[in-house]
Design brief:
129 residues; alpha/beta; globular; 44% helix; Rossmann fold; five-stranded parallel beta sheet
Amino acid sequence: MKKPADTKIAIIEDQEEIAEMYRFKFESEGYQVEVAENGAVGFKMVKDFGPDIVLLDLMMPVQDGPETLDQFKSAGIKVPVVVLTNLGKEEAMKRIRTPDNIVDFLIKADCTPKQVVEKIQALLEKVTA
């Protein structure tokens, strides 16, 4: 498994305070973190940054999460994606046309930042082993 310092996490989230809260939590654990405020910026960031995992909000202005997932598929980007949303899993799945990269769904309101970090760390152990 990669060390946190060698692990890159991309956060695509339009609510700045949420994105920065997760950035702080992951950086305090030693991870490299990049943040984008919408899917269009996030897609370019993922191409350039090459993250090990992406936290993706579904409902964003400019370009939403489902459109971003479509772009990942079209570009052949196979990075694991954790959907971070306030929608329920069933509602979220109805909006997603290309679920290929999705490894988990986290409901923002149901998870503390510490729980999100722990879940991402567990997923990273699987995907970077």
